[in-house]
Sequence to fold (978 residues):
Amino acid sequence: MLCKTAAALAVLLPIVAIAAETAKPPSESDFLADMPIVLSVSRLSQPLDEAPGAVTVLDRDTIHRSGARTVPDLLRLVPGFQVTNAFENSPPIVSYHGGFGDYSNRLQVLIDGRSVYSPFLLGNAGNGLQTVAVDDIERIEVLRGSNSAAYGARAILGVINIVTRDPNDTRGLAASVTRGNNGIADWSARGGWGNETLSLRLSARRSGDEGLVGPLGHWLDPATNTGLSAPDGVNHLEIANLRVDFRASERDSVELRAGAATLYSGTGNLFAVGNPVREKRNQTRYLQADWKRVLGPDSDLAVSLSHSEEVPRDNFNYKLPAPFFGTVVDFGGEAANDVLTLAHTLRLDPSLRLVWGGELRREEVRSQQLYGVPQLATNFARLFGNLEWRLSPTLLANIGALEEHSSLSGDSLAPRLMLNWHLAPGQTLRLGASRAQRPPSLYEAKSNTQYIVNGVLLDETYVSRNVPQPETVLSREIGYLGEIRPLHLTIDLRLFSERVEHMIRAQAYALPPHTKLLGSQTAQEYLNDPIPTSIKGGEFQLKMAPWSGAQLTYNHTHTDIDSPDSGTAQSAPRDAKMLMLTQRLPRELDLSLIHHLQDAMTWQKAGNVLSGWSRTDLRLAYPFALGPSRGELAWVVQNLGGHRYNDYNNHFFFPRLVFTTVSMRL
Amino acid sequence: MNRAGAAAAALVAIATALLLGTAPALAVEPLIVVVASEQGGSHAEATEALLTELEQGGVGRGQVALIGSRDAATLGGHAPRLVIALGSAAAQALSDSESKVSQLYALLPRAAAEPLLVKAQGRRAASAIYLDQAYARQLELLRLALPEQRNVGVLWGPASEAHKPALAEAAALRGLRLVSHFVDSSASLYAQLQRTLDEAQVLLAVAEPSIWNSSSIQYILLASYRARVPLVAFSPAYVRAGALLAIYATPAQIGSQAGVMARAVLAGRALPAPQYPAQFTVQVNGHVARALGLQLDEAELTARLLESERHR
Fold:
């Protein structure tokens, strides 16, 4: 009997094995067995009409069809944003409700949850915005309005949340090449691989162009001594990013990221003694590890650890005669950032969802030239929580707060209350207020920039005598989100009132006579404005599909700034409008048109008035197949009309750019 | 007795039967023998519902013998009027037996039951109650829940592909377009899922172990959520995992339907033809629905589906 069974098994087993591989029939266990929780409580995003504020989402389709080569250029599509394309001082910067300074330091920028806000100098997210390739982005969520209650001090005016594509969505090989006028030369390459438990992507990109032009094109302007491009004629950027997603168990997932970016850009004035034409370099690199554990159907834990470094290089010779000839000024330095974050998301009951957690962060900057000491470090510790409380089926309250302790500036608390009232299906009214604080950055608190050679003080530019107190924003808003499904129409309206108190601003003070050898006997320090600045206005966004194959977006932002400083008062255009139309055409052709129209504004200081401008961008793309691979040929014209307009500085102009991109995916 | 208690009682009954090796000494020859693949859980739940249904038809628990798959070949030494298998393994074992007694296979998918029904032809009367819901019902629910979604994505594998024409026909009847792609290996799952998510507005899961299993579900659900393509599935476990909704029969619903069929046989009628579950349960993941901007209500969907079936 045993022999018979064994013989039968011996014959049957190989057949069973093959059958299992080819067509294992379902059994009741397919219907009755348990499954791991995948879309756990923290993976599910808050719908827009339940978010505690206005959110603009730029999805992959919009990003791709915009024709934008950089992230800042994409942010022009967001109501209330001001964007530059200049590389001369900092990489292109973005601001919300006003270009208040040389740097993006009142917006938090996160890439996959990691802050790319640099602690160097005044604090700046400009470099961070350059560290991700547009092709790697899944979506950009812009939280318009103060969000310090969830994201800390640097989110005092808003948050730009960049989410990169899941490696599972970018398997295979892809490459693209762009060529155009004004020296535009970009290439990118990407490789991705994955299976059910592990997936990864490695991407690299090099991009370059000649930047903005001066009144005489790329020639130096003798009237202003303005140099507008790097010595070798181009600004260029090299980026490499690696992402590895690993499913460690049914409950645990681990994501590892690493990357580096180097930006070379030109700066300086031909005839300026202390600011000659030269090339700057900024390197950034990071490591990030995220671990997420599903604790249960209603509870998730996320731990994130990251280390970021930045190495700005900006050395030049002071153009001085002997005995100071050859004096090297070094504006460069190093900055490092280590962060450990823990977040626990839990559903307490069907009407209560809580996200709470903490963060420990250490920021270190090194620049003897800027700070007058070899190294400065700040330690931060924060606790945060947001309770999403469904008071009734139509009324939702978001109650949140973040408390942060900084070893430099003490404690700050940012609370927020937002009520979302669903008037009817698809109709939501939002009402709320928040208070945020931004303590001074290290440079605002402890600048000490002196050029001392052979014991002689040549110059001093910024020397802090006092640490300014944190600037605060009290933000109030009324929002409306409407959706008319049959017409595929959505409306997003936000009326805002932001009161900025103790705004931190550089102000000159007199030095004792003969303190320094060069220039007037003054220095600058950062002080609080005694009079508050008030920013009021409204943002309107309409999206609709007016006819087959078309998608239309219209933005209109009206901003009124009342400030004791005339530059600040004009730092946002009174009115800015944007229209974007995308249309699928016959033969799979794809057309996008973007038109911008905005009033005059100043950027950074009173005298720097940028005239009102309009700009039209056109993109025409043709997808094609080449054997098994698919490709796209895209032709983009930016500033189609060719009327050069002021960008960042009233001596800099944005020219007409024409470029062609060929991309292939295998 | 509550459900858990009932299940426990049935479990004890089955365990006793198995421990004794043969059927417990019964006063009378059992009218029905129940063969269960497993002792606990869903099988016990189905058994208990079956026994309750039989009791309501005047068949006491003493007239039903519960045995394990091991004793299927001999029917535990009994000569009942009907033998009911609960689960694929029990059905398979029963189908291998020489007995001429009519057989009813329940608590197993259609794909597992069909070969057994073919095998029974000319040997004995056999029928089945599938675990899968009829395509007509699944698609009708999909139409009611997501009226704007017209393109329904389905991934087929070697075990399920034969049912593609039937689903396509049911879809066409409701003005739905089927976006079908065939997955022949776990490597091709990635490419075919991407293609499906590009074209479809909703993903319908069709039982196919090579595609839908606990190791692939993470990848499928995350990809479909990113694409904002909701998943309509066939079991509550998928809803817990993150599917938008599922329509399924509970083991108790199947057990009770088996009881109804058994009562017909005992009443002298012929064994009814193989059938889909008469009853169903709709479950919605409210959190997923909200994240996708949808408002769905289980009770309302159930009522509307019942109503729609009444009018057909």
